[in-house]
Amino acid sequence: MTSKFWFPSLPVSEVVDAFTGWGYSVSPEQVARPTSDFVLGVYSACLEQLTGITLDTLQEPLEQALATMENPDMFSQALAHNLLLYHIQRLAHAAKIEDFSAKDLYFPEPDRTRAVFSAFINFIKFTEQSEAFIHRLRNQSTAVVKERQAVLEETEDLEQKMSEFKVKREEDEPKCEALRLENVALMEQVISYKDRQMGLLQDIESSKQQKAGLVAEKEKVVTEMATSTENINRTRSRIVQSPERIKRNISTMGLTAAEEKRAVTTNEAKTRDLQTKIAALLNIEKEVRSCVEQLQVIEKEVRTLDAAQKELADLKDTLDSKKGERAELLMRRDRVHKQYSNAQEKLERAQRHAEDKRLASQQTLERLQREYEEMSVERRDNDRQVEELRAEANDIERQMAEHMKTSQAELSELLAEYWQLRHETELYMEILANKLGMQVVRSM
């Protein structure tokens, strides 16, 4: 296992007990000598135990993928195995088995398979202990998937709105350009009106100052005239009136009155001119006020346009970000397609390799069959020779047994004669010793 994680490699009995506890019946012989169908069933059961994915669950995406191909019958079985292998590899990667491959499915090795079983059992027990946390993660994942779908739908709506905004903007662009030009002209006109207003206000202010001065002079003249009239009346009663002086005074006073009338007429004419100018200034002020109101309306429209442009810029930014996400999703899809094509190529190579191995195995099997038949013929010959040799051996053994029996009988007779001869010899030696007076010790 090329992994930095470590988990215990369970014995066969614990592997069997674990799968039996989850309702999947296995035998120690199957674990000790695994086959492709057996490990495929066990891995599918582990996948269903953890993720709920079964072959029936994969049927719908399998049909969708096959619908896009030209020859679906050719790839149906391979694609089904490839999809199942992909999900089992995801499970193996989660269980920290980084080098899980199709070899573990189709050419399982006992030690390797038991190690993979141990990793899956360890991971399943861990998920059972962390069931609440995993359930929360699955809910969050489901929520994220739904949110992603909602974001994709919202992106499509925004793109549609953006296209509508673009069309509408292109339609309104001539009007906006005309409004901009009109706005520039109105701003220039308003600036000129403001300059004229400032000049007129200065004229009005100077006219008001002149009017106030003339009114003050008029009041002063009236006051002086009243004072003079009162002095004249007072002095007239004290002096003796001379007709000539009176005439001169009258003529002088007439001239003065005429001059004063002329001054009053001139002042009234100036007053009328000033009132006319004031009325004209009031009309100009009304026009300026209407221009200011129009400017306010234009400014409001400009603010609305700026807000719309800002919203359009935000929508452009959002569209750019969505385009970036879409480009990233397209890149992911391309990578997935590339991985899928690579997996198809690997699967085709594996199938060709398996076909070559199958042909080689078939040829080896045929060669072994021929050798077996030759060995069977040789074995029959050998069996016949063995039977003949066994018969000869039995005959030799029988002869040996008869010879041994004969030899035993002869040996017994010889021993009996030997002991008898020895007994007779000892008796002879005792008799001879007694006669010779010698003492003989008998050997036992």
Describe, in short, the structure shown.
The chain is an all-alpha fold and 444 residues long.
Average pLDDT taken over every residue: 78
By secondary-structure content and strand pairing, the structural class works out as mainly alpha
Uncertain segments = none
Strand content: under 5%
Separation of the first and last Cα atoms: 81 Å
Number-wise, the strands total: 0
**Element-level helix/strand string:** HHHHHHHHH
> How would you sum up the major sheet?
none
Given the C-alpha coordinates, what overall shape results?
rod-shaped
* Fraction of residues in H or I helices: over 70%
Number of helices: 9
Query: Which value, in Å, is the CA radius of gyration?
Result: 65 Å
What key attributes describe this structure?
444 residues, mainly alpha
Account of the protein in words:
With 444 residues, the protein is mostly helical. The protein has helices at residues 12-21, 28-32, 36-51, 59-67, 72-94, 103-106, 110-129, 131-236, 243-436. It contains nine helices and no strands. The chain is rod-shaped, with a radius of gyration of 65 Å.
Topology:
Layout: H1 12-21, H2 28-32, H3 36-51, H4 59-67, H5 72-94, H6 103-106, H7 110-129, H8 131-236, H9 243-436
